[in-house]
Amino acid sequence: MKVGFIGLGTMGGNAAKNIRRAGFDLSVFDLRREAAHPIEELGATWVASPKEMIDRVDCVVSMVFGPPHLQQVLNGDGGLIHGDCGGKLWIDLTTSSPGFMRELIEPFVAKGGRPIDAPVTGSVDAAIRGDMPMFVGGEDADIEAARPVIEAMGEIRKVGKYGNGYVAKLVNNQLWKIHAAAIGEAMVCAEKAGIDPKVWWEVMKGGAADSFVMQHDVPSIFAGHYDPSFPLKLCLKDLGLIDELMRETGTRSDMTDACHARFKEAAERYGVDAGEMTVCKVVEDDAGVALRVEGDWQAPWEVEHT
């Protein structure tokens, strides 16, 4: 199977490397030509547009910033829809709007395309290792055809029809960001009440307070870098899509709204390129507390592919 990859950012670039390492004939495209150089060194081939890509491959994988960028990938000058879509798989890993994507994909399907949405969860270290959990929606036959490519990047978690992957990713990130916003309050409160931050972290893990944020993200607070591999601008993009989904479904969203407000405050204070966990720095700074802990805290982007 010949594979193409569109979008070679922090997560996409590492996912593309794993597809190439799995032995696939890989073509790559990104708006930044230099982003392809590390994958080209592994034997990937540069193409000039999504159209050129779909004309030469059996399966396209994309991971871009959001809905407008996906619309450009499909319908823009040199977009996929202008090429040979018949029988071709399109696996999209982007965090996007379910309703928007179900409408956007219609002309691709009309031309014989086979869409799969497979947004990922985890962090850059999971992308490097190739074990990202992936929320996969689409026709069973298409998912099975795409299985070798998807499993080169991570773990398949099937969620039903096309578009459900985007839903699963949004509500996943909803909980993730609420946990991230709340954990700063708990950490600062515990420290001010007399518990050493590292002691607090060790005793919280494995209990009712545990979460991915507790296990994976607290060390970025201790280290003081707050994980810039996932910046606040991406958090705010995701929270905007979550808000849209909550409104569409008529779901009460008090906690989500409070979380969104805290992330906006963090972006206003520290800039949109600051790391996701600076949402906790807001509470630290207001309390006059610095939750730094000495230790060898490995940053997520320092993990090596095994």
Q: How many helix segments? A: 14
The number of strands is 8
Shape, please? globular
Instruction: Walk across the major sheet and give the strand order.
Output: 3-2-1-4-5-6
Strand content: 5-15%
Query: Main β-sheet: number of strands, strand sense, barrel status?
Result: 6 strands, parallel
Helix share bin: 40-55%
The secondary structure category is: alpha/beta
- The Cα radius of gyration reads 20 Å
In the CATH scheme, the class of the largest domain would be Alpha Beta
The chain-level mean pLDDT equals 97
Which residue ranges are poorly predicted, with pLDDT under 50 across at least 5 consecutive positions?
none
Could you tell me the CATH topology label of the largest domain.
Rossmann fold
| SSE string, helices as H and strands as E | EHEHEHEHEHHEHEHEHHHHHH
Question: How far is the N terminus from the C terminus?
Answer: 24 Å
- Tally of discrete structural domains: 2
What's the architecture of the largest domain, going by CATH?
3-Layer(aba) Sandwich
By CATH, the superfamily of the largest domain comes out as NAD(P)-binding Rossmann-like Domain
